[in-house]
Amino acid sequence: MAALNIGTGASSHSAYDLRDHHETAERSHTLAVIVDNEAGVLARVIGLFSGRGYNIDSLTVAEIDHAGHRSRITVVTRGTEAVIEQIRAQLSRIVPVHQVTDLTTEAVAVERELALFKVQGKGDARIEALRLAEIFRANVVDSTLESFVFEITGAPEKIDAFADLMRPLGLIDVARTGVAALARGV
Amino acid sequence: MSEQMTGAPVAQQDRMTQETMTGAQIVVRALKDHGVDTIFGYPGGAVLPIYDAIFQQNDIRHILVRHEQAAVHMAEGYARSTGKPGVVLVTSGPGATNAVTGLTDALMDSIPLVVFSGQVPTFMIGTDAFQEADTVGITRPCTKHNWLVKEPDALADTIHQAFTVATSGRPGPVLIDLPKDVQFATATYVGPKAAKPGHYRPRTEPDPQAVERLVELIERAERPVFYTGGGVINAGPEAARQMTELVEATGFPITSTLMGLGAYPASGKNWLGMLGMHGLYEANLAMHDCDLMICLGARFDDRITGRVSDFSPGSVKVHVDIDPSSINKIIRVDLPIVADVGKLIAAALDLWKARGSKTNRAAIEGWWKQIEGWKKINCLAYAGSETTIKPQYALERLEALTRGRDRYITTEVGQHQMWAAQFLHFDKPNRWMTSGGLGTMGYGFPASIGVQIAHPEALVINVAGEASWQMNVQEMGTATQFFAPVKQFILNNERLGMVRQWQELLHGERYSQSWSESLPDFVKLAEAYGWKGIICSDPKDLDDAIMEMIDYDGPVLFDCLVEKHENCFPMIPSGKPHNEMLLAADAEAFKSGAALV
Ligand SMILES: Cc1ncc(C[n+]2csc(CCOP(=O)(O)OP(=O)(O)O)c2C)c(N)n1
Ligand SMILES: [Mg+2]
């Protein structure tokens, strides 16, 4: 959060202490949240983040256990250590939340994301796009004479890198799923 | 959470027998099975089936309010004075939206409530039907949890879960939204014991190692202080009793937040008075200078800490809370303990005794000497008057004239609230009901009715400001209708006093919109509703007038005309540390800016 421009002494006119005391070293964390798959549960999680001013960089959700009615929400968030600790505690007290795991600090995790890229172009640009897609092991899932749709999976950084390369080659549309993550080992 | 809170006795009949009944009947039956004797509510189209079921029974009393916000505050008063959850019933749309302030108030102050709202029939949800509102959406951030019940067969289980969630862990309000067709549908009723257990089971037992560390700290501390809050009250009277024992046995000083008053008796010798923005000088300085702070069931609210970076700089801090998210939220502590505060106190007391009941007596004696020095400042001193009633004087007299009675006090929000906390003394828990976290003007009057309904014979007084009190003035009819002999003690300064105080001290004495214009004739208003009205403006008449109020068998509206420009001290201006408290004598210098540098 950007610091507000508050004049010296001005906060003595407020009912609150307006200075920001929080440490600034923010870091990205991937949280896995296991929840009951019931109406409104995603709204609860998202509402917690917006209501308390936390960041969401990416969020995915899907049912993972149909019989047990469980879903897994993977949230990538940013914050200082204290904020991340608060986020975990706040998530944990939502009634339909069963478990919260910080995959960044508690485990070594694999993180994967799927993305679809639509690239429009002709001639050399088109050939270059196809060549780079091969290097990135992206699949062509749709093609016309002047466009491709590539499907790529990988860590978010890999997808970012691919996007950077495609942009000058005619990238016109992107769809990304957000991160799915699991701890390595057992 | 104590037994008392989860509390309601469960009926004796066999829970395994399944019965078929309508959704509306399930609601009433489940309430009975949870020991509910009173609900506060207001009817409307979307809850008519439930009102019909209520009509056809006599076990549950329905208190008809005049506005749904008041129903929720009444339920809060009921809950806080009994330790049992309060129950509310409102209709869809405006009924539910009117309840939002009360829900938020209960969430902030951790008060267990179960609120039922009507909803349009399931097949009409989402069509902008008449009196449709997205009630679960609107109340999601102001309830501990909420449910929209679409399956009649899930209704009984949901209600049982709702009582569990409201009363266990950190208590709070829950809401069940009930579409009208679900109320009409027939379904199977299962009793509380046969209900599907939810997974929600907050940790209540303290970690034994943490208890041991706490006891070691208690044994060694030189300048300790107990800082206690509403969590001790919520943990039940036994927790308050054991805390009192621990405090007396260790000889440590104790202060409390606004929410925790009464858990340790104000007549006890270790009592420092309330802490915080308008807390006592000795309490705040003890917090600032202590070397061991034991926080029991409080949450380092910004009204308590002042400037966070200067908060109690030299102390080892222990924080006991049933809600892990309260720990390390504002202040980083050295020993976090997630537990029911009652269980923690019991465990710590046992272990401390088993290890020989040791404390650092010599050091603590010195610490008390320092505290006695601070007490000599006499921080609540005010200039008396022969001709005008000072609000502090009015409360001193109210205290003196009600001492020894089992008295319940509610308040509105403002200066009068802070003076009440400073000048009234509470020797038992559950006797003091005030809106702490949300600071809701309009809370006190309906809360006092809720308390009175729960304790029909008790003396129940709402200490009010004339501005706050008008925010739920319509409840006069409710008090009359249900013979609730509540006493409304209005400290009438014809000002939005607390706002005026901030404007005087911090906004160059520009009194923007902070006076009460066109006030009613309170005595006539009282008479219009069949109450007794009393007006008093002379300090010499005050005692008689207060006695007249107390002795009257019925509701009383007491218009106590007080000094209009009195300020509430001590005061820690926001953003200042505890040791930069303003006393009455400093106010002029502060206004002229001298204290701002
Ligand atoms: C619903 C609501 N609106 C506004 C406020 C802000 N506020 C806090 S105290 C206060 C003035 C209260 O005046 P009164 O009830 O007469 O009490 P006094 O301070 O004069 O004792 C106001 C407006 C509030 N706390 N609650
Ligand atoms: Mg006033």
From TrEMBL, chain A:
Classification via PROSITE patterns: ACT
SUPFAM superfamilies: ACT-like (SSF55021)
Coiled-coil residue spans: none
Superkingdom of the organism of origin: Bacteria
The enzyme's E.C. designation: 2.2.1.6
Every ACT domain range: 30-102
Membrane spanning stretches: none
Keyword field: Amino-acid biosynthesis, Branched-chain amino acid biosynthesis, Transferase
Pfam families: ACT_AHAS_ss, ALS_ss_C
Pathway the protein contributes to: Amino-acid biosynthesis; L-valine biosynthesis; L-valine from pyruvate: step 1/4; Amino-acid biosynthesis; L-isoleucine biosynthesis; L-isoleucine from 2-oxobutanoate: step 1/4
Enzyme class: transferase
Biological processes per GO annotation: isoleucine biosynthetic process; L-valine biosynthetic process
Annotated segments matching region Disordered: 1-22
Chemical reaction(s) catalysed: 2 pyruvate + H(+) = (2S)-2-acetolactate + CO2
Cellular component GO terms, alphabetical: cytosol
One GO molecular-function entry: acetolactate synthase regulator activity
Homology family: Belongs to the acetolactate synthase small subunit family.
Known partners and oligomeric status: Dimer of large and small chains.
Function: Catalyzes the conversion of 2 pyruvate molecules into acetolactate in the first common step of the biosynthetic pathway of the branched-amino acids such as leucine, isoleucine, and valine.
Designated name of the protein: Acetolactate synthase small subunit
